[in-house]
Amino acid sequence: QNIPVICIDGPTASGKGTLASRVAAALGYHYLDSGALYRVTAHAALQAGLTLEAIDEAAIAKLARSLPVRFEGDQVLLDGVDVTDAIRSEQGGMNASKVSVLPAVRDALVDLQHSFQRLPGLLADGRDMGTVIFPEAPLKVFLTASAAKRAERRHKQLISKGFSANIDALRADLEARDARDMSRSVAPLKPAQDALQLDNSSLTIEASVEQVMVWWQSRQ
Ligand code: C5P
């Protein structure tokens, strides 16, 4: 059965999650936040007493293979416990990028990601949705925005949640994470050959949604 998938890949804080979930809502499709799986894996590893410095790849992959994770609306539950705030922090993103370089961990999360492909369709966001996980997807978007713009958005988001944040430190962090994601040997961040590029530096979220919907309609 041919279940449609739209992939949205791109660097940290480019707005993939917002765009993907808006398009998913508009189309009535399911939504996969693949970054959350790497974040939860890192969280589970730390909870199990493992370190992310001298990494035990096999042990973390074993955790990832039977990750008791559930998505409920905007909440992410690990073993029934709400870990949303813990995994969404900057530290959570940094930790995720450390486990995501491990080939055995990436491999362990493949089946779980495929299980999100259900009727009537799926919006999948991440770094390797179009290149590795759903290479047959009929629409692949590579979403970018300038580092300055991404840092600015992340800063606003944190401030609005009542966190304190320093915009220069945020920018340095996201550039470090991008560098790690782009340079790893397995499934590095890069556009699929048939991906359409969308730079949203000066677009509203509505305009970005509209662009993806137009591309999607032209594929029907
Ligand atoms: O998208 P998000 O910022 O939540 O992802 C956190 C980290 O997880 C990324 O920096 C990246 O290292 C990793 N990731 C990945 N492959 C994906 C999604 C996320 O390697 N498909």
Note down, in words, how this protein is organized:
- It contains eleven helices and eight strands.
- The protein is an alpha/beta fold.
- Helix 1 packs across helix 11 and helix 5 packs parallel to helix 10.
- The chain is globular, with a radius of gyration of 17 Å.
- It starts with a strand and ends with a helix.
- The site of cytidine-5'-monophosphate has 14 residues, from helix 2, helix 5 and helix 10.
Judged by helices, strands and strand pairing, the structural class is: alpha/beta
- Quaternary assembly: single chain
Q: List unreliable stretches of 5+ residues.
A: none
Instruction: Determine the fraction of residues in helical runs and give it as a percent range.
Output: 40-55%
Order of helices and strands: EHEHHEEEHHHHEHEHHEH
Mean pLDDT across all amino acids:
95
Count of helical regions = 11
Question: Which strand order spans the largest sheet, edge to edge or round the barrel?
Answer: 2-6-1-7-8
Can you summarize the main beta sheet? 5 strands, parallel
Report how far apart the termini are: 16 Å
Number of strand segments: 8
How much strand content do the residues show? 15-25%
Shape: globular
